[in-house]
Amino acid sequence: MIFNGDWNDPDADRAAAIVDAAVRADLSHLYIRIADSRHHFYGASALQDLLPIAHAHGLSIIGWIEPMLDDPTSDTADALAAAQFEEQGQRLDGLALTIEGDSTSDPNVGQYLSGIRGGIQGMNGLGDRYLLIASTLPTPYDHPGYAYATMSRFCQVFAPMVYWRATGLPQYSGRDGAKAYVDTVFQQFRDPGVNPFKRPLTITAQTYDAAPEYGTPGAPPADEIRTSMNETRTQGGISWSYYRLANADNGVTEEEQQAITAYPFWQRDSGAGIAAKALVALPDQPVAY
Predict the structure, then answer these.
(1) Most buried pick, 28, 29, 31, 138, via CB within 10 A?
(2) Which positions ≥6 away from 234 have C-beta within 8 Å?
(3) How far apart are CA 210 and CA 219, in angstroms?
(4) Domain ranges across the chain
(5) Neighbours of 9 (CB within 10 A)
(6) Which CATH class is domain 2-281?
(7) Alpha-carbon torsion (230, 233, 236, 238), positive or negative
């Protein structure tokens, strides 16, 4: 689940409500937007309330960052500050880096990611085992200058934003259309030129009406949601997440939520292990760079 909302003030009740809703929905992890190039790391107020209660309920928290990469060093400092933030002994379980800003190519992307791993002046890096998720544009062949290979080098997981109705193309609507789009994404990420380190994929699916973005009108119905989850599993995806807008009028519909919660194959682990649908299924896989 991706929670898309800026959270600037301490609010323990809000944190408790979000965790309660996530656990009741049988989710394993939440993405929380915590930093961007304009506002830098602003998520401390959210994390101080959210991290302890989320971890107490077995819920992983991934920090969602949106770097523009005009100034890679400044953006690196924001990422390191977020990862190193601690409350009651609790830290983020990883960072999701949404690379869709002003600069999506090298050398800026490489400078940014190498700085997160190795550190910059005055700040220690996170090392080669900290979970970094590359949240990317979904179809590499449509973006030849995008630094997919560099992200494959430094990040353990790709999380392409697979918003099939946002394409506006009729062939990507309905169950067959959702399946075709998910298949296309997986096929392109198997290309060694795109993903030379063979990083696994977790799909970030669409659960909002993309009509305002000139997409196919209407939020994806339940059959498309289930199809995207089925195909993610079939294609070897390690997990499935979804994106909703902050606008209450264009969030996850009741039909979508029921389809997600009732889906039988992403089950939370009741023991001491990692939830089967969690993004942190491979937390100890080091990167090779």
Answers:
(1) 31
(2) none
(3) 7
(4) 2-281
(5) 8
(6) alpha beta
(7) positive
Q: How far is CA 3 from CA 140, 241, 248, in A?
A: 25, 11, 12
CA 247 to chain CA centroid, Å, is 19
The string of pLDDT tens digits covering residues 64-99 is 999 999 999 999 999 999 999 999 999 999 999 999
* The pLDDT value given to residue 269: 43
Span of 31-35, 131-135, 252-256 with lowest mean pLDDT: 252-256
Paired tokens of 47: 């994390």
**How would DSSP label each residue in 90-104?**
B--SEEEEE--SS--
Task: Give the whole-angstrom CA distance, residue 35 versus residue 159.
Answer: 18
Q: Which residue has the tokens 């939370």?
A: 268
- Please choose, from the candidates 98, 74, 82, the residue with its C-alpha nearest in 3D space to the C-alpha of residue 46: 82
Indicate the average pLDDT of the chain: 85
Per-residue pLDDT tens over the stretch 251-278: 677 888 788 777 776 554 444 333 333 3
For 152, the 3-state DSSP assignment is: helix
State the DSSP code for 30: E
Residue 247: C-alpha distances to residues 3, 79, 218, 251, 255 (Å): 11, 26, 15, 6, 17
Rounded to two decimals, the pTM is 0.88
Residues 6+ positions from 163 with CB-CB distance below 8 Å: 138, 205, 206, 210, 215, 243
CB atoms within 10 A of CB 106: 15
